[in-house]
Amino acid sequence: MYPDKVYVVDKGNEFTYSEIYDKAAALAEIIYEKGLKNGDRILIYLDNSAEYIASFFGVLLANCIVVPINKNLSIDSISYIISDTLPKLIITNTVFMKRLQEGKVDIKKSNIIDINRLWEDKPVCKLDLISHLTKDGNSPALILYTSGTTRMPKGVTLTHKNLTANTKSIVQYLGLTEKDSLLQVVNFSYSYGNSLMLTHTKAGGRIIIENRTAYPIKVIDRLYDSRATGFSTVGSYINILLKQEALKAFHLKYLQYVTFAGESTSFEDIARRKEIAPHIKIFVMY
User: What pLDDT, in 10s, does the model give residues 1-58?
Assistant: First the structure.
């Protein structure tokens, strides 16, 4: 519907819907060439990035199952997930690949794709991928691992129907359209972050990736400079933002809504946010 519209903004670079699709299709073709079959599990070990989004949809285009790895996981947890899922392929970058090697993670049974090298090439896909897509909504699409707070993480399998039902519901009640844009700070490897990616893709919106959450002033400035209409976070992080003296009403002038999920948000913080920018709608997600 919007091939030439800006879809992802990442590290100062803009990518249209057609550009990300071409990257995803090229990756899917490589997956086919490597002999992977429907239902094979593929790990994506990347930071939030345009590369991650293209990899996510590339794996699904190849009818394989996405297994995202949170960049903040310990080497022991990553090793456990690899032994648990037995992935046929790992999509990563040069930096994270070095971390796996230094941590002596057993990846001998998996093919490796360095997304940095693939990203440098202009992709040309020769396959008619759409005709190959699964028609079975009950087949697995994604395995998300829990945080493993009290024990080793558990892999939660989600079907295509799970993802589409969640996406359609949220697009409807947030009223998302192609005019919306999201400042994305939540990791894509979380169910929350994954849902944010899918809902704004479905609506034809714009996803602005911001990975500098350790520097709240940078996030505050980006809220204004990006003209994002939506912002999604957790209660503890909105508390950090509200404590910054640099936060002024004009930083939030373009925002139309904020969503919270993942943990409780204090009444005082919601009241403070309302005082600064009373026009912003608040949605508490589950």
Answer: 999 999 999 999 999 999 999 999 989 989 988 999 889 999 999 999 999 999 999 9
Pairing of strands 181-184, 281-284: unpaired
Cβ-Cβ contacts under 8 Å for 194 (sequence gap 6 or more):
68, 142, 144, 188
Residue 278 has pLDDT above 70, yes or no: yes
**What amino acid is encoded at 29 in this protein?**
E
Position 50 scores a pLDDT of 96
Cβ proximity of 28 and 61 under 8 Å:
yes
At residue 68, what is the residue type?
P
- Residue 81 in tokens: 């997930």
Q: 5 with 16: CB under 8 angstroms?
A: yes
Closest to 181 (Cα-Cα) out of 273, 249, 255, 250 = 255
Q: CA 73 to CA 202: how far, in whole Å?
A: 29
Q: Cβ(154)–Cβ(146) under 8 Å?
A: yes
Question: Cβ distance 263 to 234 under 8 Å?
Answer: yes
Residue 234 predicted with pLDDT over 80: yes
pLDDT at 232 over 90: yes
Tokens 């790992």 — which residue?
90
Does the pLDDT value for residue 90 go beyond 90? yes
Distance between CA 36 and CA 19 in Å, rounded? 24
pTM of the full structure: 0.93
**How far is Cα 272 from Cα 283, in angstroms, rounded to an integer?**
15
Q: Is residue 280 classed as helix, strand or coil in its secondary structure?
A: coil
- For the four alpha carbons of 98, 103, 107 and 108, in that order, the dihedral sign comes to positive
Helices within 136-234 (DSSP H only): 160-174, 191-203, 216-225
